[in-house]
Amino acid sequence: MLSELTTFSISYWTIHTNYADFSSTEKNYLMKKTRFLMFSIATKHFVVVIFLLSLSQGLAQTTLQYNVQPKQKFGYSMTSLIDQQMTQMGQEMKINMNLATDLNLEITNVTKNITLQMQYINPKIEMKGMEAMGVADTTIDANSQLNFKQEYVFTKNGTMVSHKLIEEKQEELDQQAKMMKQQLTSQLKQSTDFLIYKYPTKSVKVGDTWNTSDTVDVNGLKTVRNFIHTYTSTKKLNGVDVAEITTKSTNISINGTINQMGMEMEVRGGMNVNAVATVDIKSGMVITMDMKNNSDFTMSMTTPMEMTIPITLNIVTSLNKK
Predict the structure, then answer these.
(1) What's the DSSP call for residue 196?
(2) pLDDT at res. 12
């Protein structure tokens, strides 16, 4: 195209300087040839532009999936602020728990599926507002409540195959500690699950969305979750190419029966989740994640007395890869 532009410029200059000496027939012929040449150059230029645009669109397509190897390890720091409000026998209680912990993740097997084990390291919990339950404001080491590993098995696009808890060692816990362990296991899993994103099976570009749904069953509580994810941007974070993904829940229901202090209690309710994450495009692993989780539900029992306890639970979680 450059050679055509050069030839056209020289020809146009030669024609222009001798134009007065040409006959009317020659002038008409030259004008037609000039218009045709200009149209031809413009058309080819347009085709080149369209071709370059199509290349850029192709480069903007990203395949999000997990590319990890056995024995790879990933470390995270995690904070989770848990605010719980409940009304029991006409008395309103507000309980605050601030959890700070490290998380160790290890890829233990990669075949058709990926096996990952996750463990809490030195978890500490600051508790406030539990005086009515006989617990003073305090900060505790929660190793005995969180002394287990979580094992996730999932496909390369993050579809969950299985999940289980692996107890490190059995410890004798009092009723209060058992109840706390049950609550923490359920509440924190809602957050740690987001370390394994379910990616679309097709390549995506910025602005694309996809839907996911799953069912989580922990300690007798079944949570049916539906989300919509949006690929909002691509950027560099500490030299790493990352995709930013926002996640919003469309419908989440909580149902089940739990045992608290020897009493069977039926749980019914719903939840809203909003999260923003950055993920390493190369490995698929989460780099950062901030999530807000708001739940409203009831706990009911019929024996030894009939009672319904409304509960509002707000959890703000932040995860950062080390």
Answers:
(1) S
(2) 41
Cβ(229)–Cβ(247) below 8 Å: yes
Q: What is the pLDDT of residue 257?
A: 85
- What single string gives the DSSP state of each residue in 19-88? GGGS-HHHHHHHHHHHHHHHHHHHHHHHHHHHHHHHHHHHHH-B-------TT-EEEEEEEEEEEEEEEE
- Nearest Cα to 250, choosing from 286, 202, 209, 278? 209
Cβ atoms of residues 102 and 76 within 8 Å? yes
Quick check: 194 pLDDT over 60? yes
Helices (H), the chain: 2-18, 24-60, 175-192
- Please state the pTM of the whole predicted model: 0.73
Closest CA to 187 of 98, 79, 75, 82: 82
CA distance 95 to 136: 11
Give all strands (DSSP E) within 193-220, no chain letters: 209-218
Q: CB neighbours of 93 closer than 8 A, spacing ≥ 6?
A: 85, 86, 87, 129, 132
Alpha-carbon dihedral of residues 271, 137, 145, 143, nearest 10 degrees? 130
Q: 268 Cβ partners below 8 Å, 6+ apart?
A: 254, 255, 297, 298, 300
pLDDT range class, residue 39, cuts 50, 70, 90? very low
Q: Output the six-digit token pair for 212.
A: 């996911």
Q: What is the pLDDT of residues 196-248, one digit of tens each?
A: 889 998 999 999 999 999 887 766 778 888 999 999 999 999 999 999 999 99
